[in-house]
Design a protein that fits this description.
The chain is α+β, with helices and mostly antiparallel strands. The chain has one domain: Maf protein. It is built from six helices and nine strands; from the N terminus they run E-E-H-E-H-E-E-H-E-E-H-E-H-H-E.
Length: about 200
């Protein structure tokens, strides 16, 4: 399959295997690096704006790469009401999150930003509604005890065994994985050429 080659070099400011997988699936040529950026949610900021704010910070934090290098930053949060569910600290924390999500609809918000030489040149965010099936506590407990929830916002992986928890998705599936495809391609479009 033919892919997209950047007119400029592209750095993904993330070591998320899911984001790398999505970019590879799209045929985008890139290198992944961990940004030197402390993720702090600004006090008083609307929870839905936090992912774009953090994505902008990650993308802008990678400087000194040269003017021909673009940096793609991204951040995903799971929201139940105004409460941000981050990555669980352990299986008990994962179980608490999964119990809060059980049988309910929540939002997944992913922010994406593109920067060059520490200056953000584009950014945006995508919201997806995810509805969990109503499952027995034992099923949640078993999933929480697995390794899968440990590095995932909201303590589940929709592309893995966590798919068993999900009844319905309203919006971009890949947004829930961590990188909304259409927003990302729109941002990268002017800087890509097809092989």
């Amino acid at each position: 399959m033919k892919g997209f080659m950047p007119k400029a070099k592209l750095v993904l400011a993330s070591r998320s295997p899911r984001r790398e997988q999505i970019l590879r699936m799209l045929g985008v040529d890139f290198v992944a690096r961990t940004p030197d950026y402390e993720e702090i949610n600004p006090p008083g900021m609307d929870s839905r704006q936090v992912p774009e704010h953090l994505a902008r910070g990650k993308a802008a934090s990678m400087t000194g790469l040269g003017p021909d290098t673009l940096v793609l930053g991204s951040d995903t949060v799971v929201l139940i009401g105004d409460r941000i569910l981050g990555k669980p600290a352990g299986s008990e924390d994962a179980l608490e999150m999964l119990t809060a999500l059980n049988g309910r609809t929540h939002l997944v918000v992913t922010g994406v930003a593109l920067a060059r030489e520490g200056r953000v040149i584009d950014s945006g965010a995508v919201l997806t509604e995810v509805t969990f099936a109503k499952l027995p506590l034992q099923a949640l407990r078993e999933y929480a005890a697995s390794e899968e929830p440990m590095d995932k916002a909201g303590a589940y992986a929709i592309q893995g065994h966590g798919a068993r928890l999900v009844e319905k998705v309203n919006g971009c599936f890949y947004n829930v994985m961590g990188l909304p495809i259409q927003l990302t391609l729109r941002m990268l479009g002017p800087y890509l050429h097809q092989e």
